[in-house]
Recover the amino acids of this structure.
């Protein structure tokens, strides 16, 4: 096992698995909380589980997603015959959540969330949010949005929303030991478009299909082909820039974690970059 092997595994996770490297700023999910867990076993086995708690308005739920990386993962699901390296947990009782939620906001009489069997009080007092540094959007007067309520609740009930060891070990062999837990770290979102290059024949077929479907008024095959080739070049350039600047292996967080795994020595984790995993650093999360 080498540090480079670990970094290569992380860098290529968006190719090996369905999806991409964990994105804290995902536009479909308001970021609420994060945690990173590192595991090590014998025979050069290792695993990383990244917890991301978010509110997904389209899914109408607060979801704890666990993203797995490693060389010994088990029990992975699949989608379109491609392995999935994440799964979601719903810490709040869904009946309770739906009962006290009106669209994307709390109902005025909402009193608590039932989180893993515990009643977690909710507040509608604006000053409590202001004191916690949570700016209320109030798209409608006197409304508290779900992500705002959750961010306040997490200040005193964070452990209830985080993964249990049983949940973490769902895709990790039980004999691996948890050697490092980080509540914050410096993170970069990493996403590759991986736009395919069409063959000339496939390009012609695509043009004919769309022409039959919509007519493509005023668009010749030559114009269509030129636009497509330009798109492929631009996508390739964006992927190259993304790879060079944002892939996990390109910055110290994951380089240090790889060193910790290889040496089994926690003293190697001495970051110089300021952590940025708090939700306040990802204002565009949930923006769509």
């Amino acid at each position: 096992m080498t540090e480079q092997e670990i970094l290569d595994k992380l860098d290529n996770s968006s190719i090996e698995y369905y999806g991409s490297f964990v994105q804290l700023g995902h536009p479909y999910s308001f970021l609420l909380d994060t945690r990173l867990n590192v595991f090590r076993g014998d025979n050069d086995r290792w695993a990383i589980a990244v917890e991301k708690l978010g509110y997904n308005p389209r899914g109408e739920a607060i979801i704890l997603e666990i993203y797995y990386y490693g060389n010994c993962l088990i029990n992975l699901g699949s989608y379109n015959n491609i392995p999935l390296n994440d799964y979601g947990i719903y810490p709040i009782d869904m009946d309770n959540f739906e009962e006290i939620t009106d669209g994307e906001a709390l109902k005025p009489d909402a009193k608590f969330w039932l989180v893993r069997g515990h009643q977690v009080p909710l507040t509608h007092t604006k000053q409590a949010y202001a004191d916690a540094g949570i700016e209320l959007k109030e798209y409608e007067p006197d409304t508290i949005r779900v992500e705002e309520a959750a961010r306040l609740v997490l200040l005193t009930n964070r452990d209830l929303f985080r993964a249990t060891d049983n949940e973490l070990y769902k895709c990790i062999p039980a004999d691996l030991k948890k050697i490092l837990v980080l509540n914050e770290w410096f993170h970069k979102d990493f996403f590759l478009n991986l736009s395919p290059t069409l063959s000339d024949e496939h390009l012609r077929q695509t043009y004919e299909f769309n022409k039959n479907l919509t007519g493509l008024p005023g668009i010749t095959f030559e114009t269509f082909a030129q636009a497509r080739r330009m798109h492929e070049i631009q996508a390739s350039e964006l992927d190259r820039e993304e790879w060079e600047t944002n892939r996990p292996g390109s910055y110290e967080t994951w380089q240090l974690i790889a060193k910790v795994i290889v040496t089994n020595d926690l003293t190697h984790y001495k970051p110089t970059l300021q952590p940025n995993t708090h939700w306040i650093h990802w204002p565009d999360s949930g923006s769509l």
About this structure: The chain has nine helices and eleven strands. The mean pLDDT is 95. The two ends are 41 Å apart (CA to CA).
